[in-house]
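Aim 2 progress update. The chain analyzed this quarter is reproduced below.
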Amino acid sequence: MALFLCLFFLLFSSASAACNQCVLAKAAFFGSDKALIGGACGYGPLALNFYAGHVAAALPPIFQNGVGCGACYQIRCKNTAVCNRAGTTIVVTDIHTDKTNTTDFVLSSRAFRAMALPGKDTQVLQLGITEVEYKRVPCVYKGQNLAFRVEEFSHPPNYLAIKILYQGGQTTISGAEVAAVGKPSNWIPMSRNYGAVWDTSKAPTGNLMFRFIIKSGIKNQYFVTNPVLPPNWKPGVIYNSKVQITNVALDGCTPCKPW
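Predicted structure tokens:
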């Protein structure tokens, strides 16, 4: 079985600088995927398009006040009698406020079932809460570039709120700016409204492009899009870019052991 590379990331305050070894924890699942549609990241029904609906709510140290939105994790169940060795990839779309810290993730039922051996779906669901191991992995959206949904509460031409969709790679976005095409020196800062939603009340006019501060490992980098929004951008519309984030954190870690 192929080795997963050891990836550096900031996850827990008690281990803020360590290789991304497999973390032992527990996970549960939502009885209905509808519970994830109103997730704290703000993806809404679009969340069910991520990895065929293999999405999850995560504890606050993983959610990180919205910074963790869109992050991908490889997760597998430890019960070898009913679970496969590969597990599945999940995308963080919500916060899980478990005061007892019993479970790190609450998965969509389809993600939970994806951890099962062939024909063992029902048995896996009957576990309810199960021991798992997981680690951060890059998100890969085949044939899908970074996209931006202009939120309904945007008010052209000045107040612009965007939702970041299909964020690839293994990065966190810590800052966002917008500028009119042809005026790259006039970047307007945006603020995280909540989750994956960023906004500004000073949006420039004309064709718009975005610049993000992304972190993969210990380095901050700028990531600039092509012109994405037209001058007459409209609330409720998704605009696709021609670029995708592919950065991963490879900070000299040795390979992790096979699962």
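The domain at 147-240 is CATH 2.60.40.760 (Immunoglobulin-like). Residues 70 and 116 are 24 Å apart (CA to CA). These observations will guide the mutagenesis experiments scheduled for the next reporting period.
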